[in-house]
Amino acid sequence: MENVCIPEATSGNWRVEKFTTDRMDFRSLASGRGVPIGKTYTRLMCGSTLVMSDTPAEMRDHSYAVHNAKGSCLINGLGIGMVLKNILLKPSVTDVTVVELSQDVIDMVGPHYSDPRVTIVCASAFDYVPPKGKKYGMVWHDIWSYICGDNIEEMKKLHRKYGRKTEWQGSWCREECERANRPGRW
After folding, report:
1. Structure pTM?
2. Annotated domain spans of the chain
3. pLDDT tens for each residue of 61-105
4. What is the pLDDT at residue 27?
5. Between the chain's N and C termini, which has fewer beta carbons within 10 Å?
């Protein structure tokens, strides 16, 4: 997977910014989410909340979506466009619909993905209605800022909603969220 190439920007309470790691966060390293020292990445912030980055851990999290992308694809959550960028590299991807709740995120990130195969819609993943008869080769849900067991109910709802409209679907860090709900975990 490739890192994103979008510039820093601010819109409303949202920011796209570059950051260079200068120290090791051992707690993140122990959880498998450590970031190599001295590398520069891009992240999306909402206020003081880190929403997404193109660090190696995030790339691993999203590699399932990229691997399974083919034909028509639907991505719920634009973020910094990391999944979008990487599935557009696949010749088997014919078109991509991205559903993003924040117009600010669309304004900052969307213009950097002007491929004619891309349609970006400002809507909630829960409210968006695909065109009648539309089928997807891949649906990816990435609308959460935290890996948390509380996300599971929303993931289940989205999987039910889109289940008959796709050959494959997944949600960002679903397995980790399920583990967080098990007794004695995290």
Report:
1. 0.90
2. 9-57, 60-177
3. 999 999 999 999 999 999 999 999 999 999 999 999 999 999 999
4. 46
5. C
Closest among 3, 52, 57 to 30, alpha carbons compared: 57
**134 phi and psi, to 5 degrees?**
-70, 130
Q: What is the CATH code for 60-177?
A: 3.40.50.150
Cα–Cα distances (Å) from 184 to 40, 148, 149, 181, in that order, read: 36, 14, 13, 9
